Structure formats: structure tokens, C-alpha cells
From TrEMBL:
A single BP term in Gene Ontology: regulation of translation
CDD domains found in the cross-reference section: Ribosomal_L1
Family listed: Belongs to the universal ribosomal protein uL1 family.
Organism: Corynebacterium terpenotabidum Y-11
Keyword Ribosomal protein in annotation: yes
Residues that span the membrane, as ranges: none
Protein name (Swiss-Prot/TrEMBL): Large ribosomal subunit protein uL1
PANTHER family: 54S RIBOSOMAL PROTEIN L1, MITOCHONDRIAL, LARGE RIBOSOMAL SUBUNIT PROTEIN UL1M
PROSITE patterns named among the record's database cross-references: RIBOSOMAL_L1
GO cellular component: large ribosomal subunit
KW Cell division (keyword) present: no
Gene: rplA
InterPro entries: Ribosom_uL1_bac-type, Ribosomal_uL1, Ribosomal_uL1-like, Ribosomal_uL1/biogenesis, Ribosomal_uL1_3-a/b-sand, Ribosomal_uL1_CS
Function: Protein L1 is also a translational repressor protein, it controls the translation of the L11 operon by binding to its mRNA.
Length: 234
């Protein structure tokens, strides 16, 4: 058995497979079952009671995690003139339009988020086939097409994340790092769940939050009680 398999097995043994944990308990377990040598990412997977094939049940949005993601988010901004200057001053890693498009067409995607001013979107469309499948295409619905690029850069770097339900009605999001306190992880988890509940489609019938799982990078899944919709850090 490899070291990785042994570590996973040891971590899995700490979890009661037949139990559904409260958010704070799950956060604590996620920290305890992280076995990577690096600071592992903590993820949440949610199975929603929606039919993503129907436009009125497509759950998509953003949320600002109160304790950030623990990640240095690399942001690029498609902008010119004063907007480009504002983006640079806000901390964007790369700013421009023509030069960024040329780099992306050459295969460069070494960034985590992309923002654009409305007047640059026609040009950005030329790399939509590259950015779209990677979830990097600027979109007004996620606040990444905006005239206030400085605010958008600061929000994303400060912990604003985007999420979208996939074709199988599953949704994945990062809520922090294993080095976070369980309180911080539970608070970030709560912010995500609160936003999902706010975005519940009126057309969705039956149970909305069907299954919630928390896990760290390469770690076992921990079932979280989806009925807990307040007092997440208790």
C-alpha cells in the first residue's frame, strides 16, 4: 500500500461514515484528516434539488467569504486608459486588452480570475472559447464585467468566489485552507450556504439542499447536515 493510500485510510478511519456532522464538527474533522505536506484546500460539494437543464433552475452566483480563501488569487483585467490604471493600483497581476488577448491565444492561462470593462467585451469575445470552459470568461452576473474594476479586483482578492451548478446538479466551492481555524471554515461555509438558499429557484420542488460534503485536497468526504441553516459556527 502506498504512503498516500495509507494516509487516506488513516484519515477515513477518523470519520463515522454513518454520521452526518454539524458544520463546525465537519470543519474540525477536515483539518484533522488533512494529510498533505502542503496547506490543503478545503472544498464543499453540494447536491442541489434542481434540474440544471431548465434555465429557471440554473443556480449561479458569487459570495464574499468572510475569512477569505487563503489563496493568492491571480487577477487579470481587460481595460484601457484610466480603468487600466485603477486595476493596476488595486493589485491586478496583468492589465490591458490586446496584449492579454494575444497571450491567451498563445496558450497562456496562468491566472485565476478575469475582469473586463463593458467596452472591452467585444474584443474579449475572441478568447471566449479558451476562457469559457475554464470558468474564466468575464460575466456581468458574477460582477466581472464592470466599470468599477478596482472594487472588483479587491473583492476577488479579498475572498469573493463564483459558483455554478453543473449538469449533474452538483456545485463545488472552496471555503478556505486546512490551516484556517474550524470557526473560520464554518463561517465561510455558512456564507456559501446562506447565498445558495437566497438563490433557491422558485421552480425548484422538493428538498433543495440534498447532500453536502466537506473535504480537503485528497482527503475523504465528510457529510454535513444540510438542515443546519443557521448557527454554522456553533
Amino acid at each position: 500500500m502506498s504512503k498516500t493510500s495509507k494516509a487516506y485510510k488513516a484519515a477515513a478511519e477518523k470519520i463515522d461514515a454513518g454520521r452526518i456532522y454539524r458544520p463546525l464538527e465537519a470543519a474540525k474533522l477536515a483539518k484533522e484528516t488533512s494529510s498533505t505536506k502542503f496547506d490543503a484546500t478545503v472544498d464543499v460539494a453540494v447536491r442541489l434539488g434542481v434540474d440544471p437543464r431548465k434555465a429557471d433552475q440554473l443556480v449561479r452566483g458569487t459570495v464574499s467569504l468572510p475569512n477569505g480563501t487563503g489563496k493568492n488569487v491571480r487577477v487579470i483585467v481587460f481595460a484601457e486608459g484610466p480603468n487600466a490604471t485603477a486595476a493596476e493600483e488595486a493589485g491586478a497581476e496583468a492589465v490591458g486588452t490586446a496584449e492579454l488577448i494575444e497571450k491567451i491565444q498563445g496558450g497562456w492561462t496562468d491566472f485565476d480570475a478575469a475582469i473586463a470593462t463593458p467596452d472591452q467585451m467585444a474584443k474579449v469575445g475572441r478568447v471566449a472559447r479558451v476562457l469559457g470552459p475554464r470558468g474564466l470568461m468575464p460575466n456581468p452576473k458574477t460582477g466581472t464585467v464592470t466599470t468599477d474594476v478596482a472594487k472588483a479586483v479587491q473583492e476577488i482578492k479579498g475572498g469573493k468566489i463564483a459558483f455554478r451548478v453543473d449538469k449533474a446538479a452538483n456545485l463545488h466551492a472552496v471555503i478556505g485552507k486546512a490551516s484556517f481555524t474550524e470557526q473560520a471554515l464554518a463561517e465561510n461555509y455558512g456564507a456559501l450556504i446562506d447565498e445558495l438558499l437566497r438563490l433557491k429557484p422558485s421552480a425548484a420542488k422538493g428538498i433543495y439542499l440534498k447532500k453536502v460534503t466537506v473535504s480537503t485536497t485528497s482527503g475523504p468526504g465528510i457529510s454535513v447536515d444540510p438542515s443546519v441553516v443557521k448557527g454554522y459556527a456553533e
